[in-house]
Amino acid sequence: MRDFLLDNFLDSAATELEMDVELRFPNESVFFDIRNGTLTFPDIKEAELILYFESSAQAQRLFAGREDMVTAFMRGQIRSNGHLIWVFQTFAAFGKHAASA
What we know:
Number of strands: 5
Largest sheet: 5 strands, mixed
Number of helices: 5
């Protein structure tokens, strides 16, 4: 998942984000930090924004734009701990390949 995030990170879409994010899957979590248009993977155990997915494969499809995020939300297939604006901004920050298509 880390490689996918690094490969798809669009720094120009993340310049105003300053937050820790947890991608939570049934059996694991991936934590990352976005600050000043930079993506890092600090050793943390809590995040301001938590996105809940059914699987890392599903998360990759959603971030890559191969699956519609709004539809997944409406079906309860992806959830967050709130911060809806941050959710949309986070998805935009990983739209590198979608933005260049």
